[in-house]
Amino acid sequence: MPPATPELISPRSPRVAAARRLARRNFRGKERLFLAEGPQAVREAAAHRADGDDATLVELFATVEAAERYADIIGEARAAGARVHLADEQVIEDVSTTVTPQGLVGVCRFLDTPFERILAARPKLVAVLAHVRDPGNAGTVLRCADAAGADAVVLTDASVDLYNPKAVRASVGSLFHLPVAVGVPVEQAVAGLKDAGVRILAADGAGDDDLDDELDKRTMGGPTAWVFGNEAWGLPEETRDLADAVVRVPIHGKAESLNLATAAAVCLYASARAQRASGGCRSVTES
Predict the structure, then answer these.
(1) Which end of the chain is more exposed for a tag (fewer CB within 10 A), N or C?
(2) 15-24 residue pLDDT tens
């Protein structure tokens, strides 16, 4: 059988040009569409349903080689109602935002969740990203929250765009797994979570409370929201003042500090363990 012929030969195709524009935030906001690249993200997008049971994945560009290698994903995309376009490698390179594209680029509907709906679900574990500007960090924290079993993630109005291609890639599909609210002022986020019975812990290297002590005192078993700050300067004083406690991850070795994503993983898993423990727990940071 002769090889399949790409349907979209020219990068100047209107469909290709429309997808390429989604690399820019203003176009994403205008169209309420974003790009998801690679087999893992595309697979998750094809399985995800937005409000009203609308499929999140609306369009998929694939090289002939990728379409053959990931035939199951192509089938899932078509079953979800997405338009599937076979394209040559130049088209994929033009649409992709990565240096080495994996041959699959999906166009997806926005999927953020209203903050009020997150509160109505009575969450037990939430990650709040306040002033987080690096998209890679934001996506990685989202992935950590998903892995730790968090109920939701909240990005404040001062944080990076959830749909930045780097943030989407760094989430490795977790963006499609749990509710994420965007553009929420930090004061509103904290007040709403407190009203919902959630204890607010601000993660800060200079915090007065030690994570090990919090775990050993068994104070972390209830609903908890962790507030994580900017990569360079942490949380401003006014944000720390909103929290019920400001908690530091103990440094037992000689490292100067932990980066944002690593600290978030430690904090979220500490809460997850405490919430799941039937008779309390010991420190997750002790050797």
Answers:
(1) N
(2) 899 999 999 9
